[in-house]
Amino acid sequence: MTKPLHIDFVSDVVCPWCVVGLGGLETALEKLKPEGITAEIEFKPFELNPDMAPEGENVGEHIAAKYGSTPEQSAANRAMIKSRAAEAWAGLEGKAFDMRMDETSRIWNTFDAHRLLAWAGEAGPAPQRALKEALFRANFTDGANLSDARVLTLAAEAAGLDRAEAAEVLASGRFAAEVRAEQTLWRQRGINSVPAVVVEGKYLISGGQPAAVFEEALRKIASERTATA
Q: Could you identify which of 4, 13, 40, 118 might form a hypothetical disulfide with 135, taking C-beta atoms 3.0 to 4.6 angstroms apart as the criterion?
């Protein structure tokens, strides 16, 4: 197989299961390389909480209001996701993921983060991928405010992008229309939870799946595409 699979990774940067899903997906792709199966990942925006205020909200209070979870249930869920994230990224050399969510963590408005990801995408898949990871780490490892322009531009710099240009993008409002249009498009396509991993525009793999699930699905998709070529 020579042509990479195209994957749209629809997600939010405050979604812990999206961290798990990306780690699982990339681990699967590493395992599939010897078989000649590769992919180009494009990150698409999805705001879990589009009406979230800039100051954010305590994650425990947010989960309790949204799902009715008790503090004990929230703590157990955080511990489980932390373990799943560590496992998902363990096979990626040099990319161990330390998720440090606790009862003091906050969830933020992510619209500007998605604008910055759209900008990074213009430079290609690799810069966008690097920024996605930097934003995940800023949120889940450092507990930084993802609605803060300084935090966002530092993430851009960590991803190897130009910090001054990132600041200009944020200040100017660029890519706002594009992000809104993309979000509308994916919701119209039936995506109402993330991560949603859409392969070749028609195969959907939902949720923060382990690497084995992605590996099996991608191998099957690649085989079907080869058979119909």
A: 13
